[in-house]
Design a protein that fits this description.
By secondary structure, this protein is mainly α. The chain has eight helices and no strands. It has one domain. α4 crosses α6 and α5 crosses α6. It starts with 11 loop residues before the first helix and ends with a helix. The N terminus is likely disordered.
């Protein structure tokens, strides 16, 4: 059994940019899921307003990422521990966040546990996503210029 890697790039926002991986993982297209998310948003806002104390922000940040974590749990044979590792949170936090959004999603959609994906399938999809994102980052190299270098350029431009 191999250890899951921590993915700082794993999120709903990065996944939706890769429609083929999104559909494999979620079982639906982003375009089909978007209206459902918008129908859930008022209920999500109501859940957030029930917080008694404003404390630390959730590490699984928004409705979309909560739904992604829930779909991973429902569509794949993965544990809360593994979902927590993908999001960089404790397994208890992953479980609480999934249990928080689960009733909302069940009220709005016909959600059922349909475990068609194995852990290895999900891990392969997330690896592909991470690889694609890292290739995009490598393909766009940035040149860092120190403050002194840019100051020197400004001085050269004025002398000319």
């Amino acid at each position: 059994m191999h250890q899951a890697r921590l993915y700082s790039t794993f999120s709903f926002q990065s996944l939706k940019q890769h429609s083929d991986l999104f559909e494999k993982l979620m079982g639906t297209s982003f375009e089909a899921l978007q209206p459902e998310l918008e129908r859930m948003r008022p209920g999500w806002e109501k859940l957030l307003s029930r917080k008694k104390v404003s404390g630390r922000p959730y590490r699984i940040p928004d409705l979309e990422n909560h739904v992604l974590a829930l779909m991973l749990y429902y569509r794949a044979r993965v544990t809360y521990n593994l979902i927590g590792q993908w999001y960089g949170v404790n397994e208890t936090t992953a479980m609480r966040r999934i249990k928080c959004v689960e009733p909302l999603v069940q009220r709005m959609t016909r959600l059922r546990k349909d475990r068609q994906l194995t852990r290895e399938d999900v891990q392969a999809i997330i690896d592909q996503l991470d690889e694609r994102i890292s290739q995009n980052v490598v393909a766009k190299p940035t040149r860092r210029v120190s403050a002194m270098q840019s100051f020197g350029r400004m001085g050269q431009g004025q002398a000319a």
